[in-house]
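Q: Hi! First time doing this. I have a protein sequence and I read that you can turn it into a structure. Is that right? Here it is:
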Amino acid sequence: MPAANSNFSQIPKDGDVQNHEDALEDTRHGTVDVDMVDFQSVEFLFEEGTKFCKVFLERRGGCAKPLVLEWKTENINMSKDQYMQQQGKVEMKPKQTHAFLAIKAIDNSLWNASALQHVHLEVPKNYADVAVLGELRTTTIALVNEDRFPSGVDEKVAENKEKSNRYTAIMLW
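A: Yes, that's right. Below is the predicted 3D structure, encoded as structure tokens:
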């Protein structure tokens, strides 16, 4: 690799971890014309009834060239009727530093744990001289459940708690 104060950086190649890390480091210090793209958050939370989940990206660097990124989802713990494999592209114009993906969310009427899916970013090979991915190249979408727990158990627990509080209050007097 050239000296640290050089304005030259080698673009990362597939499987070339050292060069990829060097390119990321150079991008952080503004010593190359290659931009760095990340998701803005490790996790994005949405209520289950949300129609589309907006997942935000950030691009740092000179942003001098147009950029196209590819993305795809991966199921973590969602039921088959709630998860839909999605993928697409997002285009960023020169000087554009922020963008978002709109990922369709499918609601179900059953109680279930929070539904999780990953979203992965990728820079197509023909844009490898424009941008590299930072450490947040994968994010998580969490759909927080809003359905009632089955069999009214949640209502019975609340009722028993209320009775317990009244009984405790009487005992203290």
